[in-house]
Amino acid sequence: MCDGQREPTSPKGSGSPVRDPVAIQAVIRSQYAALRACYDEVLGRDPEAMGEMRTKLAIDTHGEVTSACFERADLDDHEGGECMLEVFRSLRFPTAAGDLTVSYPLRFVPDVALSQLPDGPPEPRGDDHGLKRFLGRRKD
Prior knowledge:
three-stranded antiparallel sheet, about 35% helix, 3 strands, alpha+beta
């Protein structure tokens, strides 16, 4: 349970009996820009910061987030983490007949790391005997 979790506002909801995982993902993805802005703040303090942030959300029957906390936080930045949690706490999901707890992972990688990836496959090094043995087994 996350710190500061509040009790659901009502025991029974009037919505669907089950929340659609695709709808949950769509709501979270709609706020990727805000989450990325939080991560950009982290990068301003540590340009090499990267890792996974797994957030646990408790969602009540009205679709409100009653708590949000990190189950895993590879980014060691309190301000950035709080910024992300505020984004998650502001989310509104479709109503449902029951409460739901969701664990949602996000992986953050600086753009600089992506720009350093090679454009194509690496150049072959050394001899190519292994490749020749592999190709020699093929039947054309």
